Amino acid sequence: GAGVSQSPSNKVTEKGKDVELRCDPISGHTALYWYRQSLGQGLEFLIYFQGNSAPDKSGLPSDRFSAERTGGSVSTLTIQRTQQEDSAVYLCASSSRGDGRYYTQYFGPGTRLTVL
Amino acid sequence: SQQGEEDPQALSIQEGENATMNCSYKTSINNLQWYRQNSGRGLVHLILIRSNEREKHSGRLRVTLDTSKKSSSLLITASRAADTASYFCALANAGGTSYGKLTFGQGTILTVHP
Prior knowledge:
The complex is a heterodimer of chains A (about 120) and B (about 110).
Chain A: E1 5-7, E2 10-13, E3 19-24, E4 31-37, E5 43-50, E6 65-69, E7 75-79, E8 88-95, E9 106-107, E10 111-115
Parallel strand pairs in A: 2-10
Antiparallel strand pairs in A: 1-3, 3-7, 4-5, 4-8, 6-7, 8-9, 8-10
Chain B: E1 5-7, E2 10-14, E3 19-24, E4 29-37, E5 43-50, E6 55-58, E7 61-66, E8 71-76, E9 85-93, E10 102-104, E11 108-113
Parallel strand pairs in B: 2-11
Antiparallel strand pairs in B: 1-3, 3-8, 4-5, 4-9, 6-7, 7-8, 9-10, 9-11
């Protein structure tokens, strides 16, 4: 079946502009995650949605970052007033509850954001 | 920090050799997972080991977990050039409400020479 998809695959923007990144999770997956990966770095957790529960926003680096998940499916990560340090690959993942609390996350190909 | 620390940062071997990567962490975990990443884009899940397990196998992969030492290792046997990638360990916290949230290590860059 279809995997996690993300769009756009690449985004170049100017400092100060707003950007929206989209994630389409695997159908039926109740959990959705956003991570970002800066050049040569590991993955940094941003936000986690699980069903109808309040999202875990503990990883969002500033109030310029926000995310929503509509209808329990598609998610949009919005970065307002982008800064050069926001340049990174933004990765989305989804998972299903499966065996109790043990999750395997399936990742999309990512969106490479470059802020000039 | 719950972040896993991986060792070595980079590993270069010849095809056919075994590759071992290690991950250490500081707090209690629910499970530990290993992921692979090619060319800095999407990650692929390799294997998950639960906190009450000590060893798991999947094809040429062998993962061990020692919760007393708070460490895990990933062994790739009979490596191939196609195994060249970055490998990350990811920790799922024990307790709390965000069971699915993962904390990733910095990764090990594996290069397998033909």
